[in-house]
């Protein structure tokens, strides 16, 4: 793993509006264009998260905030007043986009009717080389569709996919994909998810020969549904370190780096997993209410539980990678806090620095089944 | 809820072998035929669990253990020696069946080649009225197939289903079905799962008008895969209290009594859920290893964590009901301990007493879509 990132020259965009507080624009290593209107608490937490990311990265990361200029600037005055300006000097710009794709909008029709949405404008900036990556905590379906449409697909990939990282009982996380992008999949798509996931894990975590499993309902080759039975054969014949079928329990158990499934199953497992912390919190509260002794135990345990839960918290991961598009597009959680937005920006940065897409392409070329 | 059960006359079977320790056979309320050879630790834990169930129920429950007589009797001598005999007097019998369907056997071919398996013999005893229910911690697929074959289906049900109970953040559990019996389902089957699940929850937990949700990837009616989109319409038009699509997070959150999905998704979610306790244990151990302060916190928290985890433990639930067959067939977890076996027997008892099948039939007759 190359970390910190190697320096790379940034070409400042000429067409974008300058943040009106007089800042000198500095040439940065990595520029992330962030959808300022995306997420349940936008633009407030997005602006805060961007300011925090810049501060925490000591200016290693530049951010272009895309959205309603007035709203963004009003937030910027709140979040980076006085001394704050110095921290973001030359590293934060605003590009105006007057339309917003809401969380409840139907992705494809919204993309058609709202040509000037923050998502579309932001992705176009990335496509045109004004930024190295795009990140949004907005409407997942819209980000997925717009990314595929505006950035295009990597040659050889039929369906871009969204992955999700799960913590495991071991030291390495488990990348589950597809986590919701592709509901009805063919075996071919599952095979591609395996290729992309393996390349991602190798690039981002430095894992050599990631173990790739196919999510099914039994370890035997004969167990599964029609699609997984066919995908099993393809994965077995492919170039990956394929460990065969894995079951629901193998995700948190660890040891399998990449778990492949269709987006219907993946999304359900992802959301089920995300609900564990609040479930446990409710259970501990009930336990604490049993009596003073239990209350004391629960109080003492709080720190440990919080520490353990932190790993399961999507706010920490910041977002999920959209793999298979010609560019870097990171999708944050709709309920993202400022911390989640900050982490989403760092995730975008790392995805750029580690050249995930280059590694996906290498993997496709190395694949016996990699031709369309 | 009628609990404890009303008295019901038991007809002692004439053809079954008596347990050789001289016991006087008493007429009991409920007789459960238990597959003594089913489960990873059979027959030891099964015999122990049966003895414990009889002792704990104060003779309310009788058990017929089916399997290799010598092995069972040898275990009985271990588990119920001397004083133990008094506890099981007249409440435990052994029926010999010389074949065993192993956990790894392919269900259908094993049923054909092993006509005299403990599963087949046990189910035949139940079918012939020698017992009120059958329970096994053995090969799930074999129990499912044999139950459908030997007991037959309830008229109007296309596919018997296996449900799984999840604990929730609220006070009521969530019944997820199908949990693995039917991998590729049609909409019609999902609809039937809803009917059966609703009847089960109403009968077993006394829930009035159970809330039934369809597991999908978004709450909107338009979200889902081909099968769930069609099932949505059927459930919406049916007689159930259908609350629409639910997501992965709604299972542990509580509030939805019955969650319907195909067996592929359900089995993956079930096994994922089952892996949470050992995941958390591993995380707490790692937390404890950070230093003496953390170790102390983890030690103090242990009781609380264990108490919370207990609810998530499949050993507590004892097993999952197989719904839609003409009889009561309970499937225990392969890794069942003696405690799990005991609880499996009690679950079978309650399923009989609460007349779950009668309520499924009532529900089918009340259903506008209930005709085949």
What is the chain-wise order of helices and strands of chain A?
Answer: EHEHHEHHEHEEHEHEHEHHHHEEHH
Strand residue percentage of chain A: 5-15%
Q: What is the tally of beta strands of chain A?
A: 11
Poorly predicted runs of 5 or more residues of chain A: 1-28, 83-87, 368-372
Instruction: Work out the radius of gyration of chain A.
Output: 21 Å
Strand arrangement, major sheet of chain A: 3-2-1-4-11-10-5-6-9-7-8
Quaternary arrangement of the chains shown?
Answer: homodimer
The percentage helix of chain A is 40-55%
How would you sum up the major sheet of chain A? 11 strands, mixed
Per DSSP, the total helix count of chain A is: 15
Most extensive chain-chain interface: A-B, 56 and 55 residues
- Rounded average pLDDT of chain A: 85
Find the structural class of chain A using helix and strand composition: alpha/beta
Overall shape of chain A = globular
How would the blueprint of this fold be written?
The structure is a homodimer of 372-residue chains.
Chain A: E1 30-35, H1 44-56, E2 61-67, H2 69-79, H3 83-88, E3 92-96, H4 107-113, H5 118-127, E4 133-136, H6 140-151, E5 161-166, E6 174-177, H7 187-205, E7 211-215, H8 226-237, E8 241-246, H9 249-253, E9 258-260, H10 263-274, H11 276-288, H12 292-312, H13 314-317, E10 320-323, E11 329-331, H14 338-353, H15 356-366
Parallel strand pairs in A: 1-2, 1-4, 2-3, 4-11, 6-9, 7-8, 7-9
Antiparallel strand pairs in A: 5-6, 5-10, 10-11
């Amino acid at each position: 793993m190359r970390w910190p990132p190697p320096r790379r020259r940034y070409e400042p965009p000429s067409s974008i509006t300058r943040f009106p507080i007089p800042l000198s624009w500095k040439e940065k290593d990595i520029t992330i264009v962030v959808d300022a209107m995306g997420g349940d608490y936008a633009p407030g937490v997005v602006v805060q998260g961007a300011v925090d990311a810049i501060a925490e990265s000591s200016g290693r990361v530049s951010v272009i905030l895309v959205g309603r200029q007035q709203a963004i600037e009003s937030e910027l005055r709140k979040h980076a007043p006085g001394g704050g300006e110095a921290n973001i000097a030359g590293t934060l710009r605003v590009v105006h986009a007057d339309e917003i794709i809401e969380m409840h909008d139907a992705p494809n029709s919204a993309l058609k009717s709202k040509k000037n949405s923050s998502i579309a404008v932001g992705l176009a900036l990335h496509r045109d080389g004004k930024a190295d990556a795009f990140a949004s905590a907005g409407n997942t379906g819209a980000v997925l569709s717009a990314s595929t449409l505006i950035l295009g697909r990597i040659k050889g990939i039929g369906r871009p996919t969204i992955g999700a990282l799960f913590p495991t009982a071991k030291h390495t996380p488990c990348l589950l994909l597809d986590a919701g992008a592709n509901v009805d999949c063919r075996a071919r798509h599952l095979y591609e998810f395996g290729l992309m996931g393996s390349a991602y894990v190798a690039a981002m975590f430095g894992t050599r020969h990631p173990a790739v499993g196919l999510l099914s309902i039994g370890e035997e080759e004969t167990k599964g549904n029609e699609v997984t039975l066919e995908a099993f054969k393809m994965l077995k014949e492919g170039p990956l370190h394929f460990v065969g079928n894995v079951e629901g329990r193998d995700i948190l158990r660890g040891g399998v780096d990449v778990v492949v499934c269709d987006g219907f199953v993946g999304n359900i497992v992802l959301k089920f997993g995300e609900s564990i912390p609040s479930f446990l919190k409710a259970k501990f509260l009930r336990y604490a209410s049993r009596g003073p002794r239990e209350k004391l135990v629960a109080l003492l345990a709080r720190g440990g539980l919080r520490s353990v839960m932190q790993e399961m918290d999507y706010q920490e991961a910041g977002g999920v990678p959209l793999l298979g598009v010609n560019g870097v597009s990171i999708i944050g959680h709709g309920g993202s806090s400022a911390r989640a937005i900050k982490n989403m920006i760092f995730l975008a940065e790392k995805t750029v620095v580690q050249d995930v897409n280059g590694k996906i392409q290498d993997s496709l070329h190395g694949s016996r089944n990699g031709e369309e």
